[in-house]
UniProtKB/TrEMBL annotation:
<dbReference type="InterPro" id="IPR024078">
    <property type="entry name" value="LmbE-like_dom_sf"/>
</dbReference>
<dbReference type="Pfam" id="PF02585">
    <property type="entry name" value="PIG-L"/>
</dbReference>
<dbReference type="InterPro" id="IPR003737">
    <property type="entry name" value="GlcNAc_PI_deacetylase-related"/>
</dbReference>
<protein>
    <submittedName>
        <fullName>PIG-L family deacetylase</fullName>
    </submittedName>
</protein>
<dbReference type="GO" id="GO:0016811">
    <property type="term" value="F:hydrolase activity, acting on carbon-nitrogen (but not peptide) bonds, in linear amides"/>
</dbReference>
Amino acid sequence: MFREFVNKIKEQVRILRVDSIRLRAKEYPSFSPSNLSVIVAPHPDDEVFGCCGLMQRLIALGKRVELIIMTGGGKSHAGCCDIDENELIRQRRQLTIRAAKEYGLSQEYIHFLDYPDGGVLESDSQTDKLSSLIHKIVDGQNDVSVFYPHKNGEGWSDHVTTSNIVSQLFDKICPNAKQYEYCVWFWFYNCWKICWKQACLVKMNKKEHAVKLKAIDAYIEPKAPCGNPWSGVLPPVFLWANKWDKELYFRVK
């Protein structure tokens, strides 16, 4: 009973925090789109939760969007069932492609890497593959933006390490690229250290928001044999917060 009470209090605090951030964030401006935008997601679904409205807007403007997924998300059923991890990865990557069809990104612009879920490390051999991929994607482009998870607010090591790896690689490969942080687990974890001076916003119209909700559903509705979503069971507060009709970003460079 006491644990349930504490969990309810935590949930209410999360709701109040999200509401307070939304109230402040709605006044912030959008940003000028680059000709090339690289979205880097630690797991399949982070790109939709954090950047679906942005990607729609960029694609509609005729800008090039490249999506990199760091892991296969193979640990989404850890402690749930005995489904094979390779099958989980295969299914979750199919969900990425299905969700991308909703918001208009062609499969040729989606790149899957093989960092281990829950174990993204800079020292992994996949970092060399990521470096080569970024070189290939950028290839002399001058007007480039890269988007990765919020370093202080995401809470999960894969998200934080992904951001560190990507920011360091872009500093070397494309030092003039604009770098932005986006928000996924930021909405769930109790992070109050927010640099509002660098905040910017994508305000989705009704059509864009409806597409984002469909893309989220493409991830969370398909069920594994155990009855849970292939992407795992996500907290209700997390889902509610990420279904907002706006997306919050922070320019870090």
